[in-house]
Amino acid sequence: MKQQANQEIPSSKTLPMDGMSRWKQIAPFAPFSREKFRQLVIAGKAPQPIKFSARCSVFKNRELHRFFADPLNYTAEVC
Question: Which of the residues 8, 27, 40, 65 could staple to 45 if both were Cys, CB 3.0 to 4.6 A apart?
Fold first, then answer.
């Protein structure tokens, strides 16, 4: 049996409370595009990413839950 190259991995129906997630895991819960989320991050109005490398960023799930609960009044944590 041959697998298709662009077969998607089934995503979870909920975002875990703990841990970290990459954009692909967050996208199903985000009511806006990746670019708009990036703009909100830069403006400090969305959770700040943790950079593992130049091409790998993750977001804290607890912060994402805070953000999705009240996106208009969210302010990023100051480290």
Answer: 40
59-63: Cβ within 8 A, 24+ apart: 59/20, 59/21, 59/22, 59/26, 60/20, 61/15, 61/16, 61/17, 61/18, 61/19, 61/20, 61/21, 62/17, 62/18
- Scan for tokens 């100051």, then name that residue: 78
Classify strands 50-53 and 56-60 as parallel, antiparallel or unpaired: antiparallel
- Looking at residue 58, its amino acid is V
